[in-house]
Design brief:
CATH class: Alpha Beta
Number of helices: 8
Oligomer: single chain
CATH architecture: 3-Layer(aba) Sandwich
Strand content: 5-15%
CATH topology: Rossmann fold
Order of helices and strands: EHEHHHEHEHEEEHEH
Bound molecules: adenosine-5'-diphosphate
Radius of gyration: 17 Å
Number of domains: 1
Distance between the termini: 23 Å
Low-confidence stretches: 220-225
CATH superfamily: P-loop containing nucleotide triphosphate hydrolases
Largest sheet: 5 strands, parallel
Mean pLDDT: 93
Structural class: alpha/beta
Strand order of the largest sheet: 2-3-1-4-8
Helix content: 40-55%
Length: 225
């Protein structure tokens, strides 16, 4: 399956993407994570990405599209993929269309995670990531680790993303409204979008997401994280 996950910051895309991808045995491709890898490795691309990410702005399209193009040529994407955080504007959506059309492929579904804006800042302010594996995501109130500051899965140190400060979050929300919301409209016109509520417990949202893509046997879904 080839699936897109779209939603404002704080909707829980990353949290759901990890679980959905594991359930469907397809790679989880997050542009945010790809950029953070570059930042950690100190690459030139990472330096460019960092400036924009810290300001709550989109990384320039030519950089982002290059990263995605490279990732989508890796062999593990032959059985499908779950894209998390791309495309985030119409130019990126067009580029994705082109990449898929070159291989005569199409998207199967777009999942739009909807959340009330009032919830976003609270969710993001409490988010903590594991330094050893960014797919291990916690929340100080909603999904706390057993021991504060320590990852339950691997014992790694938990930290807060630098772009999770309130002012940056508000800017990211603004970018979502002005640039990314139109991507949802575009796929809506193609009949690909299912909007699901991002409220409630992680497992409830996962059930909704699996139902929406016709994989509703969520009991089989991984509940270990
Ligand atoms: P969130 O979905 O919570 O905003 P992400 O990890 O997906 O977090 O993205 C973090 C930041 O990385 C974004 O605010 C943006 O600066 C950059 N980014 C991620 N995906 C893209 C993209 N497709 N195009 C441009 N910038 C992106």
């Amino acid at each position: 399956m080839r699936i897109l996950l779209i939603g404002p910051p704080g909707a829980g895309k990353g949290t759901q993407a990890v679980r959905l991808a594991a359930h469907l045995s397809i790679p989880h491709i997050s542009t945010g994570d790809l950029f953070r890898e570059h930042i950690d490795q100190g690459t030139e691309l990472g330096r460019t990405a960092r400036t924009h990410i810290h300001a709550g702005l989109l990384v320039p399209d030519e950089v982002t599209i290059g990263v995605i193009k490279e990732r989508l040529t890796r062999p593990d994407t032959e059985r499908g993929f779950l894209l998390d955080g791309f495309p985030r504007n119409l130019a990126q959506a067009q580029a994705l269309d082109g990449i898929l059309a070159d291989s005569e492929l199409r998207l199967d579904a777009v999942l739009d995670l909807a959340i009330a804006e009032g919830q976003v800042v609270r969710r993001i302010a409490g988010r903590r990531l594991c330094r050893q594996d960014r797919e291990h995501i916690f929340h100080v109130d909603y999904s706390p680790p057993q021991e504060a500051g320590v990852c339950d899965v691997c014992g790694g140190e938990l930290y807060q993303r630098e772009d999770d400060r309130e002012a940056t979050v508000r800017q990211r929300l603004e970018v979502y409204r002005t640039e990314t919301a139109s991507v949802v409209d575009l796929y809506q016109a193609q009949g690909l979008v299912t909007t699901i509520s991002a409220h409630g417990r992680v497992q409830e949202v996962l059930h909704r997401a699996l139902d929406a893509i016709g994989q509703g046997q969520a009991d089989a879904a991984d509940t270990s994280m």
